[in-house]
Amino acid sequence: MPAKASFGVNTGTPNNASNPGRASTEVITGTSTVTSHAPYASKALDPLVTIDRSSLQRVIAVINGKGGVQKTTLVANIGGLYAGSGYHCLLVDLDPQGNLAEDLGYTDTDNDDSGKALAGALAFGGTPTPVTVRPNLDVLVGGYHLNAAAAALTNMASRDSRAARLALAEILTPLAANYDIILIDCPPGNEPLQAAAVAAARWAVVPVRTDQSSRKGLLEVARRLDDVMDVNPGLDLLGVVLVGVGSSAHRIKQTARDLISEALGGDQRIFTASIRHSEATAQAAREKGLLVHELDEQVRQGPSWWQIRRGESSGGNAGPRTAQSVADDLQALAKEIVDSITVAEEGVPV
Ligand SMILES: Nc1ncnc2c1ncn2[C@@H]1O[C@H](COP(=O)(O)OP(=O)(O)OP(=O)(O)O)[C@@H](O)[C@H]1O
Ligand SMILES: [Mg+2]
């Protein structure tokens, strides 16, 4: 097993990246490596199940009980940026909606088993094989099969809550040594799956909008984290990310920061980087199955406005110019996350 890359102080170049954060847009499809889990063996409940937490130190759950706060967008894009920088990254799509497939462009390809392998492993044990969707970027694929897994975990929890909550931690333990970082995309609802996510994670990253109901959602997240402290005492909040903010609304951002800090009981763990609102960029990225920095690259390679004006090019459908700003926001956040983990790994409190 390769040793994990040291994050160092800068995010940029752990291995050989000459242009960090500008990943290749190549999409590897058609080579499913999902192993079949049929016939399933019934998972034996083991009340003494112990997890080797040392292997799960770089597992991050991106969580918020509220829907549509960019959990999936962050997991896909931050993971893509790390992979493009040379880190070997695993994404876990724990959402029955399976939206990560859209952001990464593998919907309905051979890679997309709609969560069957992951659901089987959660319910009955075993280790699903991640699929590779970009160089350095692997995914445990999610989708509608996870509804059945959630039902199985609820059933299991009624007999053994510890085993149910540790189901994902068990799956990730043998896989984790292969990766520098693992990001989990949590569903907006679905308590058993959310509990499994945070019970597997060392860190929680919480995206929030700046409105009041989103801030209230933070209390629910805090409850989720509390619910697994007995099986995962090392779990901690890495930070809150403000999403959907206006690009120039500095005062609003500061007010939102203050209010969020207040909602967190004075906790200052709010990332400096925030993600600006750009529907055009988000829509184009998801439609094309491209990450935002990949879309940005496509825009840069597209014709300039004067070429279009002179009729030298039709302009095609390269994408919106705002992609660059959103890509910069995501890159700043990716760097801050790694910086925070580095500080923690070097023994300085985050
Ligand atoms: N910077 C952005 N500006 C505006 N809209 C965005 C931005 N990034 C993503 N979106 C859009 O916001 C919507 C919600 O994003 P996303 O699916 O990542 O949220 P989520 O928290 O994962 O949602 P769910 O709770 O349903 O899983 C999507 O339609 C996405 O395309
Ligand atoms: Mg989502």
How many separate helices? 13
From the coordinates shown, what is the CATH architecture of the domain at 49-279?
3-Layer(aba) Sandwich
Ligands, ions, cofactors: adenosine-5'-triphosphate, magnesium ion
Topology order in helix (H) and strand (E) letters: EHEHHEEHHHEHEHEHEHHHH
**What characterizes the major β-sheet?**
8 strands, mixed
Total E-strand runs: 8
Strand order of the largest sheet: 3-4-2-5-1-6-7-8
Broad shape: globular
**Could you state the CATH homologous superfamily of the domain at 49-279?**
P-loop containing nucleotide triphosphate hydrolases
Proportion of strand residues: 5-15%
Helix content: 40-55%
Instruction: From the 3D structure, determine the CATH topology of the domain at 49-279.
Output: Rossmann fold
Span between N and C termini? Answer: 29 Å
* CATH classification, class level of the domain at 49-279: Alpha Beta
Overall pLDDT level = 82
